[in-house]
Amino acid sequence: MKTILFFGNSLTAGYGLMASQAYPSLIQKQLEQEGYTYKVINAGLSGDTTAGGVYRIERWLEQPIDIMVLALGANDGLRGIPTRETTYNLQEIIDKVKHKYPDVKVILAGMEIPDIVPGRYAAEFRKLFRELATQNNVVFLPFLLEGVVGMRHLNLPDGVHPNAEGQKVLAKHIWGVLKDLL
């Protein structure tokens, strides 16, 4: 059985929801419905940054990984961590996974922060994901939260984390790029 590792933060973990409502679980159901024999691992950790991910990835490399969906960076953006640091950390995670599993297929989920953030940071932050995807020749999903961010009916009361309906939208975005790799 092949394995898909979803490596992310609270968006992946399904913060505030049952595990079965998080988008990795929804992807597992979709895979089963379509007759694919993949095991989905939800390695989402609420509050995680790319720096945390660099240290955390090691324990997930003890089992073979065929596909990795890398969905970290939102918390870096919220904390204003310099984009070069976020870029370095994401590259480090990709390198560690590819070193252990050279044939792994990677999907990089892009993140954006609102343009209301002053200065060039929002633009630089958005750009770093696209550049990393191009440099590493990995599949790129431009914005994981497309169509969910700012939509009250798709988010928990905190306005930040997708609710069960919002998670379905995230699953649809991921499935759109994942199905071609199966």
From TrEMBL:
<protein>
    <submittedName>
        <fullName>Arylesterase</fullName>
    </submittedName>
</protein>
<dbReference type="InterPro" id="IPR051532">
    <property type="entry name" value="Ester_Hydrolysis_Enzymes"/>
</dbReference>
<feature type="domain" description="SGNH hydrolase-type esterase">
    <location>
        <begin position="6"/>
        <end position="168"/>
    </location>
</feature>
<dbReference type="InterPro" id="IPR013830">
    <property type="entry name" value="SGNH_hydro"/>
</dbReference>
<dbReference type="Pfam" id="PF13472">
    <property type="entry name" value="Lipase_GDSL_2"/>
</dbReference>
<dbReference type="InterPro" id="IPR036514">
    <property type="entry name" value="SGNH_hydro_sf"/>
</dbReference>
